[in-house]
């Protein structure tokens, strides 16, 4: 059996262990220190979470970007009016100039041998640089938490455990990170509506999870 190659910590643990000045820089440091780990998640309680996923890219030189600047950019994209958890992922535009030989019929009709075509597509991978730490190729994701009404908030004990349990379930279900983070945040939020660490844990058939399992 292969061990899951992930690492999760909270805000204080991540910064204290890496001695990084910020959470985004701590994420880069953790992936550099743990080369077999595929992704790292830092949970932030009511402020959601941040995830950095290591990615290998073939035949493409990704853009290099400061991880702090990217984190600030993603935070600005949050919908402050939304009540349900969401995920904002890094996106970058790449241009690829390709040249190929036309078919015989096309050469005859057009009188040309070759033509240049520019392809544009969207990627969510970049070389993320943390000052004084290093660079990792991957994508950064910011997850939000549910805005729980104060009258429904009962007990936050075990919310972090509920979150990571939902992450493990998501991995087994082959969920992409963009679906995994909101799903895990919703599981944690449902748990917070009951007393104790286990009483409020939802089943997969819970109607409150339906929007995240489609």
Automatic annotation (TrEMBL):
Coiled coil: none annotated. Keywords: Kinase, Transferase. GO terms for molecular function: kinase activity. It comes from Solanum verrucosum. Gene3D superfamilies: 3.40.1190.20. This is Carbohydrate kinase PfkB domain-containing protein. InterPro entries: Carboh/pur_kinase_PfkB_CS, Ketohexokinase-related, PfkB_dom, Ribokinase-like. Residues 145-202 form the Carbohydrate kinase PfkB domain.
């Amino acid at each position: 059996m292969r061990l899951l190659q992930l690492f999760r910590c909270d805000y204080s643990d991540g910064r204290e262990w890496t001695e990084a000045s910020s959470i985004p820089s701590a994420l880069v440091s953790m992936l550099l220190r743990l080369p077999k780990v595929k992704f790292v998640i830092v949970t932030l309680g009511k402020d959601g979470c941040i995830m950095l996923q290591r990615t290998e890219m073939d035949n493409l030189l990704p853009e290099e970007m400061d991880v702090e600047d990217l984190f600030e950019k993603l935070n600005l994209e949050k919908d402050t009016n939304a009540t349900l958890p969401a995920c904002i992922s890094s996106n970058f535009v790449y241009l690829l100039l390709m040249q190929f030989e036309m078919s015989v019929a096309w050469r005859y009709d057009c009188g040309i041998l070759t033509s240049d075509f520019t392809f544009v597509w969207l990627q969510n991978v970049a070389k993320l640089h943390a000052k004084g730490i290093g660079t990792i190729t991957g994508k950064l994701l910011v997850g939000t938490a549910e805005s729980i009404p104060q009258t429904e908030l009962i007990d936050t004990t075990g919310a972090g455990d509920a979150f990571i349990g939902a992450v493990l379930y998501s991995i087994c279900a082959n969920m992409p990170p963009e679906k995994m983070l909101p799903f895990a945040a919703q599981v944690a939020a449902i748990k917070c509506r009951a007393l104790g660490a286990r009483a409020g844990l939802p089943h997969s058939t819970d109607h409150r999870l339906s929007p995240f399992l489609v």
